[in-house]
Amino acid sequence: MKRRKCSRCGVNKSLLREFLPGATECMHCRVGKPMPPTVYDVQINDHSFKMVFEGEPTTWEVFQRIYGERELVTSAVLEALVWPGAQVLELGACFGYFTLQFADLVGGTGKVVAVEGKDSYFHLLCRNLEGNQVVNVLPKNTFIHTVPNWKSKYRGKHAPAMPLTQFINRIYLNRSPDLIFMDIEGYEHDAIADLCKSGWLKAARPTLVWEIHGPVDEGDPDNGEIITYLDGQGYQVHRAGDLNIGIHG
Ligand SMILES: [Zn+2]
To answer: Which pLDDT score, from 0 to 100, does residue 99 have?
Structure first.
């Protein structure tokens, strides 16, 4: 494997594993610095797309996205669950890494609604959709929570906070989402409880996919309570890696 000397720490490192494409500093020296305006070619499974992260702090999570190595189990699970023509609701779309995979999977006859409550993420999400000429994704700058003035570091100035049932009723006029994918930092509990209490979940029966959280910095991590709620709605919850998959019936 090719190696190169980091321009900052001077250590020889693997070109592929330790450097962002085009960077002269190694990742260990780059972490925390703002990402450059570079457009990166990302490849994961059969999906190829372009992504920018301009201005966001450099993190190993960003590095993993650029090399198509982030959350591979999640990508494989979503690939198995989403079909051409499906309607997908994605909560916590972040920079659009999964959004762009969904856009591919649902194709021209499907639709993705991508929700992101943090301003800087939403801005990059929209740039990444435009950069790939994606037309089957509707991005929404909304923070999903049952308390209308809920304060969170993930909620930007422009994002209204709204219960999930209310959001779905506003957006999906004709047909309900077939799959809801949530990566919302522990707020899954609030979102799923709202869908149960409103009666929406029992009627629509979408597949639900969410992460099992370790320590969360916000939100309520009680996964056990979510599973109990879903059990009462006729759902079975399966696990794959760090994911929960709730399927009706
Ligand atoms: Zn270095």
So the answer is: 98
Identify residues whose C-beta is under 5 A from ligand 1, the ion. Answer: 6, 8-9, 26, 29
pLDDT along the chain (249 residues), means of 10: 91 89 94 97 94 97 92 94 98 98 97 97 98 98 93 92 96 89 91 95 96 73 87 94 92
Ligand 1 midpoint to CA 24 (Å): 9
- Residues 6 or more apart whose Cβ sits within 8 Å of residue 107: 84, 85, 136
In contact, 131 and 39? CB cutoff 8 Å: yes
Which stretches within 96-241 are classed as H helix? 97-106, 119-131, 164-171, 188-198, 200-204, 223-231
Query: Domains of the chain: which residue ranges?
Result: 71-248
Q: Which residue has the tokens 């590095």?
A: 63
Give me the pLDDT at residue 48, please: 96
Q: Which fold has domain 71-248?
A: Rossmann fold (3.40.50)
